[in-house]
């Protein structure tokens, strides 16, 4: 099961809910697609999926049906804004968060089928630091941590970084400040987090940019659209496009980490180790 086509796997996470992680995932994916990358967006909130809701899509089947052997990953993929492919998870299904070895094998096979069709896999993780979140993040090549200017966001982001660093040897994190009131606030937010990690952890944090608070985002959510498509010239959309340009310059992973199968095998090993 080998593929020579490198796929960049980016986990978008945040430690806590309410920081705008799913919005960043969607709009980053659309922006990368608009730049010519073939993008798949995996809704990895396996219990409370919401990407389809945010975009007004109605999947008939989801990842649970793939794992049950009822259909292929290609069968469940939805086409979203900008031509991104969306892999919907199930909502409100507890057993999706407790996969056995047969489902793991099915997951590996399912992803190997699509590896030649995509350049970037963006993973929108659940909130918190559950086993599922940790598994997806540690299997990814890039970890994008979304924070906003409130104490619990910084505390929870630090807790996630600490866990991944100490338990799983993840040593590099990219940071996006969301819903900021000024570019300086975003930098200050990053510096706060960086100072704490510098003191206590052996990790590298890299600031990717900030997304300003913008009423257009709320309006886009209400209309179940991506803000970069509905209001392309608004402040938030421009900021996300700038972040996408930075992401586009990140080096492609080298073999074997660049293979999508490697990501899934590592994901499965992580989950198996926690059972």
Specify the structural class: alpha/beta
Termini separation: 25 Å
Q: List the total number of helices.
A: 12
Radius of gyration: 17 Å
Q: Please state the overall shape, judged from the principal axes of the Cα atoms.
A: globular
Order of helices and strands: EHEHHHEEHEHEHEHEHHHH
Strand content: 15-25%
CATH overall fold name:
Rossmann fold
Helix content: 40-55%
Pfam family, one: ParA
GO molecular function, one term: ATP hydrolysis activity
Keywords: ATP-binding, Nucleotide-binding
Protein name: Cobyrinic acid a,c-diamide synthase
How would you sum up this structure in a few lines?
The chain is an alpha/beta fold. It has helices at 21-34, 51-54, 63-67, 73-76, 101-114, 131-139, 151-168, 183-200, 215-222, 227-230, 235-248, 260-274; strands at 8-13, 39-44, 78-79, 85-87, 120-125, 142-147, 172-180, 204-212.
Describe the protein in words.
The protein is an alpha/beta fold and 275 residues long. It has one domain: P-loop containing nucleotide triphosphate hydrolases (Rossmann fold, 3-Layer(aba) Sandwich), CATH 3.40.50. 46% of the residues lie in helices and 17% in strands. The protein has helices spanning 21-34, 51-54, 63-67, 73-76, 101-114, 131-139, 151-168, 183-200, 215-222, 227-230, 235-248, 260-274, and strands at residues 8-13, 39-44, 78-79, 85-87, 120-125, 142-147, 172-180, 204-212. It is globular. The mean pLDDT is 87. Keywords: ATP-binding, Nucleotide-binding. InterPro entries: FlhG, MinD_FleN, P-loop_NTPase, ParA/MinD_ATPase, YlxH/NBP35. This is Cobyrinic acid a,c-diamide synthase. It holds the Pfam family ParA.
